[in-house]
Amino acid sequence: MTAATVVPLEGACDEALFGAKAVGLGEATRSGLPVPPGIALAGDVVELVAKGDQPTLATVTEATRPLTYPLAIRSSAVGEDSADASFAGQHLTLLNVTSPDGLGAAIREVWWSANSDSVISYRKRVGLFTRPSVGVVVQSLMDPEVAGVMFTQNPVNGADERVVEASWGLGEVVVAARVIPDHFRLARSGLILERSAGLKEVAIRATSAGGTVEEAVATELQGALCLNDAQLGLLGDLAARCEEIYGPGRDIEWAYADGRLYLLQCRAVTHGTSARPKPPSEGPVEVLAQVPLFLGLSEPEVAQIASLFKERRFAAGETIIKEGVGAAAFFVIRSGEAAVSVHGRPVSTLRRGDYFGEVALIDDGDRSATITASTDVVCQGLTYWEFRPLVQANAAIAWNLLQTLAKRLRSAEKS
């Protein structure tokens, strides 16, 4: 890692390092657009933080010192915002990280979101089935009165007009379709062509304790337009400026905070919190050493393999993997319990040292079972791109894996 891989947003210029979102925001910052202050982390930095590398995390934490907390942590995976693929709603954005103590966990969660089953399945479908490089954007979080999205061309019929959707509070309520947003259409000249009030019953807002909460909107505001003509005029100006810089056909996320308009994201229009579990007392090396899959390996070999794994946490009740979905990762349970079900029927319980997810990675098929966290669960995970080379390069692991699969086959034949 070098200092050039942790930079202020205006220094993010290389898309192969930082991803399109970071580079786009960097260009916007250099062009004088109203972007909240932030930093960009290259993929190798995010990878190290996800692995738990403390010196790298310390470097990142130090780089956030000029920023005002709370922070927003956003993914910027390479290829994420291309014109031929849309990862909107798939890669994670974590809002309202209130102190440096939560920075490492938030970055790790964003890394995992780009390596989830659903995202890997999507990458296969759109021809991006390569190991993702996950950059991250860290920005001061705005506390907006109103926020939303804007298209510089009508995304439904391609008309040459601006389309704005808006709601109260953070824009995630619009992106996640939690409300019927207000709908506006603007001509390029700025003339307002349409104003349609939505039904905005809830708003997402930051909390003082960190994370976000969904709040009820006052009855008199639910059907009231949340943008006035002056604000729409500034959005029209922003659309024009973004097209000057990036070209036509832009998908823009924006927010009004303290009476000022901010640009949160600008990408090409595509075609087509609960409490975290406490960390277990033992580290990944100690856990992996007791997993049958790694029996017969020396301590240095186990330690080397453990360095490839990354921690992932699931709250009680959360689905870890879902039956019928394409596979992205292999997991070993470090603490907690998880329930296994097939076709909705309970099958077994997994506990510390149990592992799952290897079959779908071997045959490149879909998940054969659903696994749900019965308690808070901490796993050590290995992605598709690390699992296969590991098995191919290590005869002991391959043999242990064959024995495990043979036992399961015998068990299935007897049932």
Automatic annotation (TrEMBL):
One of its GO terms (molecular function) is ATP binding. Gene3D superfamilies: ATP-grasp fold, A domain, ATP-grasp fold, B domain, Jelly Rolls. Residues 293-408 form the Cyclic nucleotide-binding domain. This is Cyclic nucleotide-binding domain-containing protein.
